[in-house]
Amino acid sequence: MNYTELRRLIKDKIDKTFEEASIELQEIIFGINTNDTIGIITEIGIIPEDIIHDSTEEKLYTKVSDILFAKALKEMNFEVQVLRERSDCADIVAQSKYHEYSLVGDAKAFRLSRTAKNAKDFKVDSMVHWRGYSNFSVLICPYYQYPKATSQIYKSALDGNVALFSWEYLYVLLSSKVRETPNLNLSDLWNQSAIISRNVTVEESKKSFIRQQDENILNIINISKNDFNQLFVDINKKMVKRGNNEIRYFQNEINRIRRLDRKSAIEELLVCKKLDSKIGTIKTFINQLNCDD
Fold first, then answer.
1. Three-state DSSP class for 249?
2. C-alpha atoms less than 13 angstroms from C-alpha of 213 in its C-beta half-sphere
3. Which is nearest to 70 in space by CA: 112, 104, 19?
């Protein structure tokens, strides 16, 4: 299975209940081979622009990102569970088979057109709470979506020991055939924020530590910096291709809208503004007040 086939599969499931679709998608994804998993991981962190915001398809896409994170951990020899319900908890729980630790994980995917990301988008503070009785909290996010210089998320990650991991890191780990064994304990991968915090002053706590983390990770998994960088080059090429595809989608949309007649253009604008939905929400509120009276 490749990424395009996965997209088609997600779209085919939108008429099912969310739980049914999630279960079926997990069974399929957990059954794909390692190479297909690696290939899909390179793209899953980008939400396609042709998926409607807040749609069932978008919700299923984000659930699939959770499932792929879990699948990657399975490939690395962890026991994993994808949680069905999203009620103030992490998306996945993983347990080491050989060493006495567990982790909770949360996966993130963003649109390339989304620029105004803030600390709340990453939910780092929530990850501290969601850890519960597990040892580590691990956030998976596209590498280049992490703030470049300074951000509150870095301080929150250091203070709460939340690992700021990435899809690219998972690509490196799986491509390098890294698997936990009785003789290889990978807990330092998930403990990076605690390790890095030992040498960070309060004044520096909001600065990005991602580059330092890169160095630490390549040392933990014992690969050269050249190999590490080459794997990032490989994934970056795919990201550029995806970016150009998303640009073409918007260009096609611009051309389509320009061809609309006046009536069709007005109808599309009304749908985009969601005015009927907003009116319905207000009416529901008013009806509730009238019932209270």
1. helix
2. 24
3. 104
| Statement: residue 143 has pLDDT above 60 | yes
Per-residue DSSP letter, 39: H
H-helix or E-strand containing 255? helix 225-258
Q: How far apart are the first and last CA of the chain?
A: 57
Percentage, residues of the chain above pLDDT 70: 97
Residue (of 94, 160, 101, 86) closest to 126 by Cα position: 160
Of 53, 209, 223, 58, which is closest to residue 146 (Cα–Cα)?
209
Structure tokens at 243: 């970016």
Closest CA to 106 of 141, 135, 79: 141
| Count of alpha carbons within 13 angstroms of residue 185, beta-carbon side | 8
177: left (phi over 0), alpha (psi -120 to 50) or beta: left
H or E segment and range at residue 163: strand 162-166
- What order do you get walking across the sheet with 102-107 strand by strand? 78-82, 92-96, 102-107, 136-141, 162-166
Give CA–CA dist 36/141, Å, rounded.
20
Question: pLDDT digit string (tens) for 262-274?
Answer: 999 888 888 888 8
3-class state of residue 169 by DSSP: helix
- pTM for this prediction: 0.90
* Contact by Cβ (8 Å): 65, 108: yes
Q: Under a CB-based contact definition with an 8 Å cutoff, are residues 150 and 207 in contact? A: yes
Q: Are the C-beta atoms of residues 50 and 11 closer than 8 Å to each other?
A: no
